[in-house]
Structure formats: C-alpha cells, structure tokens
C-alpha cells in the first residue's frame, strides 16, 4: 500500500463525524454539560476544518487540550477510572481524534472507539429506545468501516453492505444470546459507581420523604398474578417496617427478631414480580408473604429481604395470603420496643392518647377512636404539607392537619404507643395499576405508601391505614384520585391525563415484554430453554460445549454456503437463463446473446421486442465495468417479460 | 408498459468512422475485411493478408497508410531480396570520409511487405524480427523503428510456385491474417465501370494526425474486459488445445492477441464494453493462421474454426 493510499480521502471524514456524533450523543443525558459542550465544540471544529479543507491543528495544540481535558475529568469525578470518568474520557478522546484524522489508521481508531462507545451506553439503560439507537449507530459505524476499506462506493451502497453484514451476523448473535453462559450477577465486576441514584424506599422515614418519592413516575416493580388478582384495597406491598422513633424520623430496628408465625386465613395467591433495581434488599412482597424465592428470608417483621441488594432488574416467583394472622403470640421485648416513645415532646398528643386510654375499654376501641378522629376532624390529604415545628406530631394533629400518608401513619403510631397499644410504621407500596394490554400490575414510586400496624391480643399485628380514614380514595382508587387538583404529581399519572394513559399502557406493555423476554433472559430461563431443547441440568461447561458446537455448525454452514456460492452462477447469468426460459428460447453453446436476439427477431418479432432490453441489460450486467449498476433493471426487465403460453 | 430508459450498449461516434467510410469507398464490398484490418492496426498488431494476386491487398495497405497519415514504405519481396535491402546499409560517404547508415524501407510507420513468402526465410526473418522487437540491429548498432510501427504483409497462397511458406513461429507474430477474396458481383461491376482503385487511393488525404493513432491505441488497450469475457477467451484457447481437429492449440500470445483484437473491434463498434460477439468476430482472423489441421498438417480450415466457435459455450 503506497503512502497516498494511507491518506484519507475527502469523502471519508463525514462518515467519521457521523460515527462520533451517533456514539457520543446519548451520553449528553448523563455526562456533565461542560463535557458535552467541549466534545460538541471539537466536533464542530473538525467539521469546519474539513469543510474549509484546512489543515488540522498540530500536536502542540492537541496535547495541552488532551491533558486539560483529563484534568477536568479528574476535577469532576475525582478519578480517571470507573464508569463515568472512563466514559467521559472516551467521549473526549473520540472528539479529539477527529482533529487528528490524517491517515486511514486514525480513522480506524475512530471506528473502533465508536464500537466501544456503543457498549458504554448499556451502563445507563437497556431499554428499547437505547437498543434501537445503538442498532442504528452500529449500522453507521459498520458502514464507516466499510467505507474506509471498500474505497469509493456511494453512501447508499455502503449502508446496504453494512446492513447486509449486520443481518449476516444475526444468527451468530442469536446463538450467543441464547447459549452464552449466564451467571447470577454481572459477568464482569462493574465499577463501584455503576449503581447510584436509585429511587426507592429507604430504611428511614421522616416527614416528606415519601412525599418526595411519590413525585417520581418511575416504575418500582411489575407483578403478574397467576389467578384473579386481589382487590385493590388488599394490595399492600410490604417494605421496611420502622419501629424506632426518635422524635423526628422513623427507623428500622436493627435488632434481629425471631421468625414470625403466620396463620393463613385464606388461600394463597401465586404471582411473579419483576423488581426494578432499587439498590436495597427489600423484596416488596404482598402481605403476607407465604412462599419466598430461594435466597429470600423474612426479617421477623414480615418484610421479605434478599441476600443481595437489587442492583439490576430481577424477577421472582412468590405467593402470599392476603388474609392472615401475624404473631398472635409476640415476644414481650418486641411489644415493649413498639411502645417506646421519645422521653420528651408532643405533649398534646400524649395527653389526647392518655384521655382515649382512659375512656376506651379495649385497645381496638382506641384504634377505632383514633380513626374516627382522623375521619371527623378536618384533616386534608396533600402532597404539599406545611412545615412542622419541633413537636411535629402535635403540630400536625392540632394545627396544620394537612399531610401525606407518612404524617398520618406516624401520628397514628405515636398516638397508639402513647395509649399503650404496640404499634409500628410499615412502609411499602399500596395499589398499582393494571395494564389492560398485558395484564401486568404496574407499581410505581408514586404508589409508595406508609401505614401502621398495631398489635392486638388474639389478633396479632393488624394493619391499620389511617390514610384510608382521611382519604379513602387513596386506597380504593389510587393516589391520583385522592389528591386535590394541582398537586405536583407526574403528568402521566394525573387523573385528567386519560389521553396519555392509553399510550402509556401500550408503551409500558412493550417495555415490559422487552424486559421480561429480552433483558430478563437470565440463567434460569436459559436453563429452562436448554431443558426444552433436551439439555437438562446444563452447567456452564455444557453451555460452552453447546456454544462451540453451535459455532462450529454455523461456521460449517457459512463455509458450505460460500462454496456453493462459488459454484453458483452469478446473478446476471441466472436472470439471463430465466429470461430464456420465460420467452421459450435457448441459447446454443457458441451463440452470443446478440445473435440469439437476432435469431428471435427473425422467428418471433413480438417476443423479440420485449426481449431486446433484457439482452442489452444482461450484456451490461455481465460485461460492463460496473455490472451491479444494471442488475436491478435487468431483474425488472426479466420480470416484465411475457410468459410463454403453454401450448 | 413502463418506459424505463434502457441504456444502450453504445454506438459512440469515434475517429475511425470516417476512416472506414473512406476506405470502403476504395475497397468495394469488403467492409468486414477493412474493419478487421483497422482493428488489427488499432490493437497494435501486424496484419497478414493472404490471397491470390490482384485482389486488392496492396490497395488496402496503401489506403490505410494514406488515410491515417502514416509514413509509408513498400518492400516487394523477391527470391533474391537480402536482409540489408530491408533494414538498410552503411555506405562510405566520401565527403565525411566515413560510413553513413542509409536506413532501409523498414524505417517507416507503415510497411507494406508485398508477397513476403516469395523471399528466402533469412530475409523474411529480418523483417519479422524488426516487427517483434520494434528495432533494427545493423552492423552492431541498434536503431529504433518509428512509432507507430505497423506491418501489412501480403502473401500468395502457399501452393503457388516459388513461395517459401512462413514457419508457424513467424506466423504467430501477425496479430491477424485475413483473406480478401473475390469481390461480389456488384462490387466487381462497379470496379470495372469506374476503373482501378489504386489511383483513387493515391488521391486520398489523411483523416488522422500522426499523434492520434498512439493515443487511440492506448485508449483501446485500456478498454474494460469483464471477468466473464476473459473466461470466454480462456475457454476458446483451451478448447483449441483440446480439440482433436488441430495439431497444436493456441499459444498464450494468441490469447492476448485475441483479447486485444476483440477490444479494438468493440471500440470500432463504439462500445465501452467488450462482448463475446467481438471475440467471435475477430477469432477466425486471429486464430486461423496459428492453428494447423491435424490431417495433413495444412492450415486450419474456416469450417474447423467455425465448429470450434459453435462448440465453446459462452460463460
């Protein structure tokens, strides 16, 4: 290869600009704005220089730029390693490489960087739009690679080749997708910062924390019931149980509890839940969990926990009994813990509770009294409660009377404890929305909820939801119905957004299908598939062997096809033979197509008129310097030939 | 019916259209032979015309030389012609008191070697070596021949008295051998009515500048020959080697000649692409003098050649 071959031609850089743009653009959603700006500026500079056909900047300029960029990345992320800093560096280098594109080698580097950058997008999202975008970008990067190697071919042809190559890779991709050994966790250890900023319940609750969560329209989990789903008021999805109260916030009691005793009062409901990553170990089972997936345990408070935090979308099978009795005989220590209150604060609340305790004969009477109180006094259910003072419960119960579920649950539990009834706050989700298209129940962050549990003799822990007393619609029909208009809910769960709802259902059903079938093809499903294929109990060794065999078979198939293609006639010749069959003539061995056309003109002038263009196009497609130019026209001309009447 | 524009195979006007027209006005009724001669010249090869005396061989050579503006020399081969009569000799120049090389008739752009097979093999080979090498070595000094250098040799049919047939090795150096044959009845009538053509050819004016011909030859040599066409040429050459009708097959040089001649033929038809038809058109002229019939060893007959063409499938 001579030196001039190594230089890039004028038509090649636009392909590389497109590669850089397509592979870095989605990162603008995640990376710092200055980096996007810098990368965009560098790209625009490179394009401008190309457009003006001017010299690229020299090393004396690029080197300080590169060093400066790296320093800025260190300043931003504190490191050059890890997911975000690494991706930022790749983006920066990609943009800078465009200013260094002199030789083919540089262009190849851009293409390889492009391929690598494609992968990095999956750190952030594995959804359908990302998949589609990356598919298109992959197509483009491959086309650029082809353009670099194939020389002067048109953009259409380049893209066509790239598409062909992509389609040819499809079987291999499917084999790898189906057979590549799946391991429980991520195959490679992801950098520490790969999991961050997950929304979800936390192990503590203070006024406003759930209210914040509710403003998110993100999906928390999806559930598919095997049989008839329980009624909406029974859909309590239990997260952490908060027993420790310090006057402002509620926390999980760190102490271990003995296993709970659950008496099922009705049939169990089987269901499958698909948890979105929330970075915690809560399984969020429907009350009360009956059977748990392997590796999950109950914590003594009926909250199902996993051994590992959920760092990726995971699917579990569970069953629950909505009618149950929990811990009829509770440990005295537990009961004591659930009566504890801070030594000072909230005097009015304590006084109110003391009065109820005196007036009511039984603990259940106190519970009813409290609920009546919430129902009859002018309490408001709102996402925008006023700020509360030092004695938050007093402030809420006697002054503002405006609050969200956590306010009601907290106030209720404090009242109960003050009145001598063991009580605790349970956080989780309540309700959910059925997608009519795929039958999945979608539970969002906006369904986050806090309720209470009181322990009554002979009945065990009984769920009491004071929010239901204030705003029964919250439990019956969902949060959008319960909140007054103008509350800052995400647009698409607001009640008036019916026109959006249909679209949203469709989109979410599609996403769910994608998550369940494509992303959710995990080790278990793989085992199932292999068992269906007659390979039960396949471990990774069996898989590796199966993969090698499948790969060998694919290679053999490709080789066989290639060999066959070698022996197969070229397309122009095949079309020419077809044309002869259609018109009912046969070319003698030494007869040229033009001679055949002349013969036909003498014997059958009518057919010859239709045949002439075929002859001309065949000769062009077979003997012209650019034969492929005429193939399509030849195909069309052959298709237009009148069929010989069978006589 | 949809009216898709079908590209034509091409009938591009070219510089040789007027040349062929003019030549056809001189050599009546022999358009195919004239065209073959022109193709041979454009392919950069030498032409052998074999026929009985008086059929217009010399006129054809003369006409082409005139029309193309080539410097013309004629050598009449006889049994006593010596090599030096062709290449030239050094003579003593009294004024300079030294030997001076007097170039022979071969130092011309178009040399008509008339009745080449009447000379002795030694003399024949002097010309044939000049044809092959494009230069003449004489008395230890090598002198280049002019460019373009084109030889039209004529020979009488070998069965005539007083001929030394050209050996196969030397015949191979002619790109083509053509036969002119008797004129058609109409053409002969017109010839008789209008008188001999030799004088008319003397009056022709050149239609091409001297520099045009090398440029055209280069253009033709660069004409695209598709893989399928090369397959066909190869198939023909191979078939000639495997057909029992011939004693020997065609040489690789013959294959190259066939391709070059087909390119020139295609160019004369105004096409950018070479078709099997072009190969077939030039094949008899290119192949026949290189092939020898297995029976008796005489030259291959026209029907042998046609049979070969009809038998080889066009890939």
TrEMBL record, chain A:
Highest taxon of the lineage: Bacteria
InterPro entries: Bact_TGase-like, Papain-like_cys_pep_sf, TgpA-like_C, TgpA_N, Transglutaminase-like
One Pfam entry name: Transglut_core
Keyword terms: Membrane, Transmembrane, Transmembrane helix
Positions of transmembrane segments: 33-50, 57-75, 106-124, 130-149, 161-180, 543-563
Chain ranges of the Transglutaminase-like domain: 397-468
Keyword Transferase: no
PANTHER family, sorted: PROTEIN-GLUTAMINE GAMMA-GLUTAMYLTRANSFERASE
Protein name: Uncharacterized protein DUF4129
TrEMBL record, chain B:
Pfam families assigned to the protein according to its UniProt record, in alphabetical order: AAA_3, AAA_lid_2
Molecular function GO labels: ATP binding; ATP hydrolysis activity
Domain AAA+ ATPase: 43-184
UniProt entry keywords in alphabetical sequence: ATP-binding, Nucleotide-binding
InterPro entries on file: AAA+_ATPase, ATPase_AAA-3, CbbQ/NirQ/NorQ/GpvN, ChlI/MoxR_AAA_lid, P-loop_NTPase
Transmembrane regions: none
Keyword Protein biosynthesis: no
Family matches, as Gene3D superfamilies: Magnesium chelatase subunit I, C-Terminal domain, P-loop containing nucleotide triphosphate hydrolases
Protein family (similarity comment): Belongs to the MoxR family.
Name of the protein: MoxR-like ATPase
Organism: Azonexus fungiphilus
């Amino acid at each position: 290869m001579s030196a001039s071959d190594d230089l890039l031609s004028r038509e090649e850089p636009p392909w590389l600009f497109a590669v850089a743009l397509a592979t870095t653009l989605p990162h603008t959603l995640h990376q710092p704005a200055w980096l996007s700006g810098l990368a965009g500026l560098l790209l625009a500079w490179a394009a401008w220089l190309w457009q003006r056909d001017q010299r690229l900047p020299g090393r004396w300029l690029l080197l300080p730029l590169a060093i400066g960029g790296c320093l800025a990345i260190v300043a931003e992320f504190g490191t050059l390693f890890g997911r975000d800093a690494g991706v930022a560096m790749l983006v920066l280098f990609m943009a800078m490489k465009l200013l260094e594109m002199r030789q083919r080698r540089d262009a190849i580097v851009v293409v390889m960087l492009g391929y690598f950058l494609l992968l990095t997008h999956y750190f952030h999202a594995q959804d359908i739009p990302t998949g589609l975008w990356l598919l298109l970008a992959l197509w483009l990067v491959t086309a650029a690679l082809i353009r670099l190697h194939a020389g002067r071919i048109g953009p259409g042809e380049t893209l066509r080749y790239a598409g062909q190559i992509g389609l040819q890779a499809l079987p291999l991709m499917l084999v790898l997708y189906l057979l590549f050994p799946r391991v429980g966790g991520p195959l490679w250890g992801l950098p520490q910062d790969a999991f961050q900023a997950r929304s979800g319940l936390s192990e503590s609750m203070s006024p406003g924390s759930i209210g914040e969560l509710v403003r998110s329209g993100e999906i928390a989990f999806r559930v598919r019931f095997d049989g008839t789903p329980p009624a909406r008021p029974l859909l309590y999805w239990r997260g952490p149980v908060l027993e420790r109260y310090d006057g402002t916030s509620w926390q999980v009691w760190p102490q271990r509890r003995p296993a709970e005793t659950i008496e099922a009062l009705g049939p169990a409901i089987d269901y499958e839940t698909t948890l979105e990553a929330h970075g915690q170990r809560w399984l969020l089972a429907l009350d009360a969990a009956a059977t748990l997936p392997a590796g999950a345990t109950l914590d003594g408070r009926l909250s199902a926990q996993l051994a590992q935090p959920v760092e990726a979308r995971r699917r579990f099978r569970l069953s629950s009994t909505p009618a149950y009795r929990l811990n009829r005989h509770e440990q005295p220590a537990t009961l004591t813990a659930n009566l504890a209150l801070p030594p000072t604060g909230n005097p009015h609340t304590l006084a109110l509770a003391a009065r109820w305790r005196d007036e009511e004969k039984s603990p259940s009477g106190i519970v009813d009294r409290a609920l009546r109180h919430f129902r009859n006094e002018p309490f408001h259910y709102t996402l925008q409660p006023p700020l509360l003072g030092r004695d938050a419960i007093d402030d809420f119960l006697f002054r503002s009377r405006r609050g969200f579920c956590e306010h009601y649950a907290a106030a209720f539990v404090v009242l109960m404890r003050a009145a001598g009834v063991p009580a605790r706050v349970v956080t989780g989700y309540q309700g959910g929305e059925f997608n009519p298209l795929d039958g999945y129940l979608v539970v969002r962050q906006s369904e986050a909820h806090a309720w209470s549990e009181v322990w009554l003799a002979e009945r065990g822990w009984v769920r009491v939801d004071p929010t239901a007393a204030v705003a029964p619609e919250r439990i019956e029909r969902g949060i959008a119905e319960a909140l007054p208009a103008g509350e800052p809910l995400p647009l698409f769960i607001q009640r008036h957004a019916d026109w959006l709802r249909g679209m949203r259902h469709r989109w979410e059903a599609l996403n769910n299908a994608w998550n369940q079938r494509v992303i959710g093809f995990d080790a278990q499903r793989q085992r199932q598939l292999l068992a269906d294929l007659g390979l039960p109990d396949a471990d990774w060794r069996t898989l590796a062997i199966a993969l090698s065999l499948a790969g060998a078979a694919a290679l053999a198939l490709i080789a066989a096809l290639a060999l066959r293609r070698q022996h197969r006639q070229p397309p122009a010749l095949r079309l020419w033979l077809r044309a002869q069959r259609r018109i009912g003539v046969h070319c003698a061995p030494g007869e040229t197509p033009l001679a055949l056309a002349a013969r036909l003109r003498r014997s059958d002038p009518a057919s010859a008129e239709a045949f002439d263009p075929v002859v001309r196009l065949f000769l062009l497609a077979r003997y012209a310097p650019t034969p492929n130019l005429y193939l399509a026209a030849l195909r069309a001309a052959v298709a237009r030939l009148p069929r010989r009447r069978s006589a | 019916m949809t009216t898709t524009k079908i590209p034509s195979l091409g009938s591009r006007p070219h510089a040789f259209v007027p040349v062929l027209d003019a030549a056809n006005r001189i050599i009546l009724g022999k358009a195919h032979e004239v065209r073959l001669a022109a193709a041979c010249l454009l392919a950069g090869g030498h032409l052998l015309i074999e026929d009985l005396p008086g059929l217009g061989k010399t006129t054809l050579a003369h006409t082409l030389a005139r029309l193309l503006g080539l410097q013309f020399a004629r050598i009449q081969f006889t049994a006593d012609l010596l090599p030096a009569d062709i290449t030239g000799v050094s003579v003593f120049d009294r004024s300079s008191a030294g030997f001076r090389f007097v170039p022979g008739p071969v130092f011309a752009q178009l040399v008509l070697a008339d009745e080449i097979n009447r000379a002795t093999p030694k003399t024949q080979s002097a010309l044939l070596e000049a044809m092959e090498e494009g230069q003449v070595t004489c008395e230890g000094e090598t002198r280049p021949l002019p460019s373009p250098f084109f030889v039209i040799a004529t020979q009488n049919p070998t069965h005539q008295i007083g001929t030394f047939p050209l050996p196969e090795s030397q015949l191979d150096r002619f790109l083509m051998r053509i036969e002119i044959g008797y004129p058609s009845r109409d053409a002969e009538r017109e010839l008789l009515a209008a008188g001999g053509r030799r004088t008319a050819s003397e009056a022709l004016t050149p239609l091409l500048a001297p520099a045009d011909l090398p440029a055209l030859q280069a253009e033709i040599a660069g004409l695209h020959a598709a893989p399928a066409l090369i397959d066909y040429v190869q198939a023909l050459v191979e078939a000639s080697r495997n057909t029992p009708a011939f004693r020997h097959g065609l040489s690789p040089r013959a294959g190259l000649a066939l391709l070059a001649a087909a390119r020139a033929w295609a160019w004369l038809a105004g096409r950018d692409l070479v078709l099997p038809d072009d190969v077939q058109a030039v094949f008899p002229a290119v192949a026949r003098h290189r092939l020898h019939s297995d029976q008796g060893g005489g030259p291959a007959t026209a029907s042998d050649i046609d049979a070969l063409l009809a038998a080889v499938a066009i890939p």
